[in-house]
Design goal:
CATH architecture: Up-down Bundle
Shape: elongated
CATH superfamily: Ferritin, core subunit, four-helix bundle
Radius of gyration: 19 Å
Distance between the termini: 71 Å
Number of helices: 5
Family: Belongs to the Dps family.
InterPro entries: DPS_DNA-bd, DPS_DNA-bd_CS, Ferritin-like, Ferritin-like_SF, Ferritin_DPS_dom
Helix content: 55-70%
GO molecular function, one term: ferric iron binding
Order of helices and strands: HHHHH
Strand content: under 5%
Organism: Aerophototrophica crusticola
CATH class: Mainly Alpha
Protein name: DNA starvation/stationary phase protection protein
């Protein structure tokens, strides 16, 4: 039986957290946190791009695209919080700076103001990138027996697949 006065897991220093004992092995939590950090960075980058396109879209379909982009960036705003909180629940720190996101993201940054067709095409590709990064995390959840992260990834994949479809359907032929 551990001695509470000598067992550092039971009496952490004030700056240390209590150990995470949720039934997910440390190495799995590490892999999950790393995968989720990429999903978070991709999502945050997509959020920024979508918000920028919301501000800068022009053309005959301004109003409908402006509204669609707003709906999407509002969902993404909630998603980044959920993703970061899941990383924290797994006992790891979430990336939280733009420089960290830029190192981790798989989404290509946009430095200009493309026309509405190019905005839509980029957002289709970017939603698909986020979807694929979620799928990579799902592959880890099986070995980790982590149904909570799997559920979160399934929710996000469903969202990104639908968003990509709606954006794709908005591209004029």
């Amino acid at each position: 039986m551990p001695n509470p006065t000598t067992d550092t897991e039971r009496t952490p220093a004030s700056h240390e957290a209590l150990p995470v004992r949720t039934g997910i092995a440390d190495e799995h939590r590490q892999k999950l946190a790393e995968g989720l950090a990429v999903v978070l960075a991709n999502t945050y980058t997509l959020l920024g791009k979508t918000h920028g396109f919301h501000w800068n879209v022009t053309g005959a379909r301004f109003h409908s695209l402006h509204e669609m982009f707003q709906d999407q960036y509002e969902d993404l705003t909630e998603a980044v919080d959920e993703l970061a909180e899941r990383i924290r629940a797994l006992g790891h720190f979430a990336p939280g700076s733009l420089s960290q996101f830029l190192k981790l993201t798989e989404i290509e940054d946009e430095h200009g103001v493309p026309d509405e067709q190019e905005m839509l095409a980029q957002l289709v590709r970017d939603n698909e990138v986020v979807n694929r990064s979620c799928k990579r995390v799902v592959e880890i959840t099986g070995d980790a027996n982590d149904t909570v992260t799997e559920d979160l990834m399934n929710k996000r994949m469903g969202y990104h697949e639908k968003a990509a479809w709606m954006l794709r359907a908005s591209i004029a032929q």
